[in-house]
Write a structure and sequence with these properties.
Layout lengths: L18 H33 L2 E6 L4 H16 L4 E7 L1 H12 L4 H4 L4 E7 L7 H11 L4 E3 L2 H43 L1 H9 L4 H41 L11 H31 L3
Antiparallel strand pairs: 1-3, 1-4, 2-3
Helix pairs in contact: 1-6, 1-8, 1-9, 2-5, 6-9, 8-9
Length: 292
């Protein structure tokens, strides 16, 4: 109940006007870091789902007739292999479409000696013996490469984990910055209202009551700054989502958040406000306990 009463004129402090904006900046940075981490995690799930149960057979570059014969021989072996669900050989147009996101439009694709590819769908549990299948295919057509995409996916996972670590580090630094900011402003408020606090003590007010004054002020300013930061975060995420859809590249992760992810972003200003309240209370109580 002491949060609602204002025996101390904390709202008149010159430092209080800066706290909402500083907390808004903290919420904004934390929100963007969290949104980036969640978008990357969603992209990794899509990539993993798209590559799971898929292998690619690459036929060595050769003349058109020889390549067609090699593809036919490999397709026959694959269709007889236990654990293989579907086999689809790709023609040069299909291969060119796969390369288009990397090298763009133009006549260069038609001039390149493109390898013939075979898209193979396999069972995931237990799945075919890929090592044995790789030897069989290479024996039938020397130079044949079977790619199970594990190496590429492992690189992507390592990159994603690195980005997530950086994002978590940013969130930690943001929390530390919020604590340091509230401590500084709270101590400044204690110095400004030193005489008023002494009067409250003479009237029988407990340290917890005085701390409640600062805690209530931190609640109000935290919610105000959090709302501002959340609004800027939502606007930025919306703009990035629009541009990611406009680019339309499968190589880049799309900035698209679901309902639960938006709820996680909404929880950021609430968490920062809770940190501000707790920090203000602890700071005041410890400072008052050191007074004679």
């Amino acid at each position: 109940m002491s949060w609602r009463r204002r025996d101390l004129a904390l709202s008149n402090d010159p430092t209080q006007r800066f706290l909402p904006w500083m907390l808004a900046m903290i919420v904004y940075l934390a929100g963007l870091s969290l949104a980036g981490m969640m978008s990357l995690s969603s992209a990794m799930d899509r990539w993993d789902t798209g590559l799971k149960g898929t292998v690619t057979v690459q036929v060595p570059t050769a003349k058109a007739g020889a390549a067609d014969g090699a593809v036919g021989k490999l397709v026959g072996i694959l269709r007889k292999t236990e654990g293989v669900i579907a086999v689809r050989p790709l023609d040069n147009r299909d291969t060119a479409n796969l390369l288009r996101p990397w090298i763009g439009e133009g006549t260069l694709v038609g001039d390149l000696p493109l390898p013939r590819l075979i898209d193979v769908r396999v069972e995931t549990e237990p799945g075919p013996d890929l090592a044995k299948l790789r030897k069989t295919l290479n024996a039938a057509v020397p130079g044949t490469v079977l790619d199970d995409h594990k190496k590429s996916l492992n690189h992507l996972v390592s990159f994603a984990h690195s980005v997530e670590f950086v994002g978590a580090l940013v969130l930690l630094l943001v929390a530390i910055a919020a604590i340091a900011t509230v401590i500084f402003i709270t101590r400044t408020g204690l110095a400004i209202h030193h005489e008023g606090i002494e009067i409250l003590h003479l009237m029988g007010a407990l340290d917890s009551y005085v701390a409640g004054q600062f805690q209530g002020q931190a609640l109000e300013l935290g919610l105000k700054g959090g709302a501002i930061g959340l609004a800027f975060t939502a606007a930025t995420v919306g703009v990035l989502s629009h541009f990611s859809r406009a680019v339309g590249s499968d190589l880049l992760p799309k900035v698209e958040l679901g309902v639960l992810q938006w709820l996680a972003l909404v929880a950021v200003p609430i968490g920062v406000t809770a940190i501000a309240m707790l920090t203000a209370r602890i700071t005041v109580i410890r400072a008052l306990q050191r007074l004679p």
